[in-house]
Design a protein that fits this description.
alpha+beta, Beta-barrel_SelB, Elongation Factor Tu (Ef-tu), domain 3
Length: 164
């Protein structure tokens, strides 16, 4: 994953790090590219979207080293240090919205719109709502199927039908 760094202290090539995102935390390493761009390599997967913010701490987890913003989730395996690719990454890092990022991606050719859409924060929020709804509904189904809870399930069914 390629990130735009806002460093507090200088980072070194292939430095081990603790990487924090929301309530998640993994370890990994940093591969410095150019200026404020770097690639993060995770020891275990971390669910992220474009433009997500992360915090980088030293391997002892005592000192905060940098903040970062996700620029690209799936960089190519080769050619990341080519000048034209680094220039393109810098323009992608300057993109302020999903529409701007899409325009920059289109400069390099075709874009997998499903993959691009899934990487946006708005889509991730919709996915989270869908998952929460499915979880609530599955709990309601378990309640209905529970033999010892049939009277309560019947009352809940009446209440739900009254709401609709």
């Amino acid at each position: 994953m390629i990130v735009e760094l806002q460093t507090h202290t200088p980072l070194t090539q292939w430095q081990p790090l603790h990487i924090h995102h929301a309530a998640s935390h993994v370890t990994g390493r940093v591969s410095l590219l150019e200026d404020n761009l770097a690639e993060l390599v995770f020891d275990t997967p971390l669910w992220l979207a474009d433009n997500d913010r992360i915090v980088l701490r030293d391997i002892s987890a005592r000192n905060t080293l940098a903040g970062a913003r996700v620029v690209m989730l799936n960089p190519p395996r080769r050619g990341k240090r080519k000048p034209e690719y680094l220039q393109w990454l810098a323009s992608l890092a300057r993109a302020q919205s999903d529409a701007d990022a899409l325009s920059v991606h289109l400069e390099r050719g075709a874009v997998n719109l499903v993959g691009f859409r899934l990487g946006t924060a708005a889509q991730r929020r919709r996915d989270a709502r869908t998952a929460a709804t499915a979880w609530l509904y599955s709990g309601w189904l378990q309640l209905v199927e529970c033999a010892s809870c049939r009277p309560l399930a019947a009352e809940n069914s009446r209440h739900i039908s009254d709401l609709s």
